[in-house]
Write a structure and sequence with these properties.
The chain contains four helices and three strands; from the N terminus they run ααβββαα. It is α+β, with helices and mostly antiparallel strands. Strand 2 and strand 3 form a beta hairpin.
């Protein structure tokens, strides 16, 4: 499914509700930075789609998936990594404390 069709399906996640202008842009940029760091620790890449509705996740072997909102990120990450991912992994928490 292409990004356009995918962006027209599903419901908006509560974290994606607009908070207004620059605040929304700043919040989304911060979320993208944190998600990119979390997923990079597991060998995955994350980037927002320019539409602001979806995001693209990939492994470093060429597999790509499109997610719509935070609700789909963790499941998609585990699918791409082909293993369960531990959000409380000490190394991951250390990495997050360095970027926060």
């Amino acid at each position: 499914m292409c990004l356009l069709c995918y962006s027209l399906t599903g419901e908006e996640h509560w974290t994606d509700v607009p908070v207004g202008g620059q605040e929304r842009t700043r919040a989304r940029a911060q979320r993208q930075k944190i998600l990119a760091a979390i997923l990079a620790a597991h060998g995955l890449d994350y980037s927002d789609d320019p539409t602001g509705v979806t995001a693209v996740m990939s492994d470093r072997k060429g597999s790509v998936t499109v997610v719509r909102g935070l609700a789909e990120v963790w499941g998609a990450a585990e699918d791409l990594a082909h293993r369960p991912l531990d959000p409380l992994d000490p190394a991951l928490l250390q990495r997050l404390s360095e970027i926060a």
